Amino acid sequence: MVDNPAAWRKASDVNWQALVDFTLKGVKHMRKDEGGAGGTIINVSSVAGLCRFSFMPIYCGSKAAVLHFSQSISSGSFYAKTGVRVLTICFGSTLTPLLDGLENRIWDESTVNELQTAVRIPQKVESASAAVLKIFKEGPNGSIWLSNDDKPAQDITPEKMKDQFVSEGKTFLVTGGASGLGARYVETFVKQGAKGVAILDVQVENGKKLAERLSKTYTSNVIFVECDVANEKEADEAFKIVLQQFKRLDVIINNAGIMVDNAASWRKASDVNWQGLVDFTMKGVKHMRKDEGGAGGTIINVSSIAGICRFPFLPIYCGSKAAVLHFSQSISGGSFYANTGVRVLTVCFGPTLTPLLDGLEKRVWDKSTANELKTVASYHQKAESAAEAVLKIFKEGPSGSIWLSSDDKPAQDITPVVSEAFADQYASEEKTFLVTGGASGLGAHYVESFVKQGAKGVAILDVQVDNGKKLAERLSKSYTSKVIFVKCDVANEKEAGEAFKIVLKEFKQLDVVINNAGIMMDNAATWRKASNVNWQGLVDFTMKGVKHMRKDEGGAGGTIINVSSIAGICRFPFMPIYCATKAAVIHFSQSISGGSFYAKTGVRVLTVCFGPTLTPLLDGLEKRVWDETMANDLETVARYHQK
């Protein structure tokens, strides 16, 4: 467990390549289809392969690679053919010498404070040993197990965990739940088997009737608590009553809202739409957070299309809903979910048929803008569509995500669209770029794209000298950008160091590094070289980029784009090593960019996963699989390749 500059390469070779090597040796010896007797391989990953520890991003990446490799190689017909079980165990902090002096082995000394908050009381070695024994006795092929906190090993295979966000057996609190959309959510989750639902509202008669009707019809415990969410004292009392009744809350839906911008009511509306929502979010986080003894949970904050668009007749309402959007993304950022186990999701509804729209022309801030109401939306979706959207979001939404529900269409994750709205600062014009593997294929397309976008300079790094020189020469003649080619094998530490120096000498400052270089080869003769390019080369240039760009050490900030693949998300049994290196890229990128990294350094780390794409990387792929008997599986993966 070493991420510091002097030792990370050696650590990565031990943690990753050696594990792959002995797995392949084991499979070759044990496989029944080649005369072996079958057997079991247990690969040791870590909780670091599941969580993101910003102080150990390379270790995290290698352990994520172990996880994905093990699942990829064991998938499909592997076990049926070979009789070899491949199991994975992820240990939490355990009392071994591996933890001694860890603060001296992190990649960046400035992350040491995050180390102190992440490492909890370690479990005993005996607990870890008992876990391995349990896994060996009980583990089905391809399963992933967690051993943590001296508890019995738990099967956390994704298929086993897919039901963690079901409504059944969960307790809900819905503000503004007595009528309109809130009442729809209440009824939806009751029908889905919720254990209990608390309706909070100022509409006493409606709330009591709804609670009584649903309690009679379904097995859920549905209660009504009178509460004005804008009133701090009432909110405190209501929350206490709900906890007294249910003991534990799993989900809070901050739905209460008023759409009024006129002079008489906008303050009250703002208190409900904004302060009430913040208050119940904070109450929920405090109750649910795992790092303070809670059980985790979900908070769904209801924003609006008005938080994304600009409606001149309702500027205050628009502002409060934009605040909800930005608050939800801000609080859920960094290592929040990893630390607390609390998901924060946001839904933006388009115009929906509820009483909120009745007589809206009387509630605008300025009567002269009332006519503009007619131009906004000619179609209003049904309330049922909005309720279905909230259910979908609850089941599928990753923490921090933003969803749009409009026009009776299925809810759509619009997180990237909203994020892009804040990204004008990242124009290509006058920026300097370094692209590894930039002489051909996708890399050459990136180079040309950024040159056309007005890049000040682009450095192409590749081993393909002829292609690289020709591309640099052609683009330099056709555009004003300065395009240079530097021969570089990214897997060669010495060459990488020299190439980076040459680029900095030429451009003085680098704004963007795109780690694109990659080889798709899992066969016995070349997998080590491919792994060095796909993983270690990428880590090396990421670290070089961070060191040069980081604002806290005199740099100007910048962006690093790491190219992963759909293979880092899916499991392709014919390419388990490639799959694992790409999973490592994803986890490394998310780990290094976690916590306060961006705030301190000003360096964005982004990851892109491509599906099958028409490049030379796919040519003759059947000859590059790890096991020729798996070549037939290639045909089942992708019939369409994007341009």
UniProtKB/TrEMBL annotation:
The keyword Flavoprotein does not apply. Its EC number is 1.1.1.141, 1.1.1.232. Gene3D superfamilies: NAD(P)-binding Rossmann-like Domain. It catalyses: (15S)-hydroxy-(5Z,8Z,11Z,13E)-eicosatetraenoate + NAD(+) = 15-oxo-(5Z,8Z,11Z,13E)-eicosatetraenoate + NADH + H(+); resolvin D1 + NAD(+) = 8-oxoresolvin D1 + NADH + H(+); prostaglandin E1 + NAD(+) = 15-oxoprostaglandin E1 + NADH + H(+); 15-oxo-(5S,6R)-dihydroxy-(7E,9E,11Z)-eicosatrienoate + NADH + H(+) = (5S,6R,15S)-trihydroxy-(7E,9E,11Z)-eicosatrienoate + NAD(+). Keywords: Oxidoreductase. The keyword Lipid biosynthesis does not apply. Catalyzes the NAD-dependent dehydrogenation (oxidation) of a broad array of hydroxylated polyunsaturated fatty acids (mainly eicosanoids and docosanoids, including prostaglandins, lipoxins and resolvins), yielding their corresponding keto (oxo) metabolites. Decreases the levels of the pro-proliferative prostaglandins such as prostaglandin E2 (whose activity is increased in cancer because of an increase in the expression of cyclooxygenase 2) and generates oxo-fatty acid products that can profoundly influence cell function by abrogating pro-inflammatory cytokine expression. Belongs to the short-chain dehydrogenases/reductases (SDR) family. This is 15-hydroxyprostaglandin dehydrogenase [NAD(+)]. The lineage of its organism: Eukaryota, Metazoa, Ecdysozoa, Arthropoda, Hexapoda.
